[in-house]
Amino acid sequence: MSNARIRRLAPSDLPALRGLLQVYAEAFEEEALYAEAPPEDSYLETVLGTPGVIVLVAEVGDEVVGGITAYVLAKLERARSEIYLYDLAVAEPWRRKGIATRLILDLKPIAHQYGAEVIFVQADREDAPAVALYQRLGSPEEPFHFDIQVAPQRGG
């Protein structure tokens, strides 16, 4: 188990958020996407201050080594919510040290505060480490995932 400190980011935590975005860029192998048009500080402050946006980071000293981005989804069929764990990543040198598990476990009491009954997350079948992590913490379902574009794509 690592000595990483887990904490929730506030609007004033932009350096830590920028560090987390770098971890995401490297972990998801999307450095160009993250570097192409980084959001302004004011946008990130607004997002971090939005109720229902949950960003947790794992830090060792001043270094962000991992984190989670999750969203609260209010349900209509009952007065409850669900949490969608959208992004989770840990920097390569810090993997296999329990940080991802700790991040998810630290998300659970926050989810409870929002009246959530469940945290759900998507994992691609070929992402064996993610699938193994989530199987230890929850029960799998077999959904389909579709991306429905909002704006027409260029050239088509």
Quickly describe the structure.
The protein is of the alpha+beta class and 156 residues long. It is built from 5 helices and 5 strands.
Fold and architecture overview:
InterPro entries: Acyl_CoA_acyltransferase (IPR016181), Bact_Acetyltransf (IPR050832), GNAT_dom (IPR000182). This protein is α+β, with helices and mostly antiparallel strands and 156 residues long. The protein has a five-stranded mixed sheet with strand order 1-2-3-4-5. The radius of gyration is 16 Å and the shape is globular.
Keywords:
alpha+beta; Aminopeptidase; transferase; 5 strands; 156 residues; 5 helices
Write the layout of secondary structure elements.
Layout: E1 5-8, H1 14-27, H2 31-36, H3 41-48, E2 53-60, E3 63-74, E4 81-90, H4 99-113, E5 116-121, H5 128-137
Parallel strand pairs: 4-5
Antiparallel strand pairs: 1-2, 2-3, 3-4
CATH class: Alpha Beta
Structural class: alpha+beta
Provide the helix percentage. Answer: 25-40%
The fraction of residues in strands falls at: 25-35%
CATH architecture type: 3-Layer(aba) Sandwich
Number of strands: 5
- Say which CATH homologous superfamily is assigned: Gcn5-related N-acetyltransferase (GNAT)
Q: In terms of per-residue confidence, which ranges show pLDDT below 50 for 5 or more consecutive residues?
A: none
- Rounded mean pLDDT score: 87
Rough outline = globular
Q: What is the fold-level CATH name, i.e. the topology?
A: Aminopeptidase
